[in-house]
Design brief:
By secondary structure, the protein is mostly beta strands. Helices cover 0% and strands 65% of the residues. The protein is built from no helices and nine strands. It has an eight-stranded antiparallel beta barrel with strand order 1-3-4-5-6-7-8-9. It is globular and about 50 Å long. The two termini are 29 Å apart. 24% of the residues are buried. The model has no long low-confidence stretch (mean pLDDT 95).
Length: 144
């Protein structure tokens, strides 16, 4: 039997916050136990110690609500302050808890061929999100 070395505990390092401007939800349909919707993304900002830029208008967030939990899949583009384009696919879950708080977590995946931002394509990220003044704000942490 082979013994493996213990795995280190993950460390989260704050990378940046994405503040996404959104338009009104579009109702797409209802199944027997779910509701499908789409939220258009109209712009926004990116700011933090590891990345600054803007959210390019277009793309959006598809959601499926089942029993009070929303399964989310957002796809849109970021423009870094140096002009580089960055694709983001951000999947996650949202629900209101019984105590009035919300569970809003995401797992973003980034793609770019810009050398200065290639680290985005080589790491795992966790997002802690919240609704704030007609924006979705996602604090992005890189898992070290």
């Amino acid at each position: 039997m082979t013994t493996s070395a213990p795995q280190p505990e993950p460390v989260l390092e704050y990378a940046f916050e994405i503040r996404v401007d959104v338009d009104a939800d579009i109702h797409l349909g209802r199944g027997p136990h779910e509701i499908l919707g789409f939220t258009p993304i109209t712009g926004g900002t990116v700011d933090g110690p590891l990345l600054q830029g803007t959210v390019i208008p277009g793309g959006g967030d598809w959601s499926v609500e089942r029993d009070g939990t929303f399964q989310l899949e957002a796809r849109y583009l970021l423009r870094a302050s140096d002009g580089s384009a960055i694709d983001i696919l951000n999947r996650g879950y949202y629900r209101e808890e019984e105590d009035g708080t919300s569970y809003f977590r995401t797992a973003p995946v980034f793609q770019t061929d810009a050398p200065a931002h290639s680290w985005l394509s080589r790491n795992q990220f966790i997002g802690l999100a919240r609704d704030e003044d007609e924006q979705i704000c996602i604090r992005i942490y890189v898992v070290r």
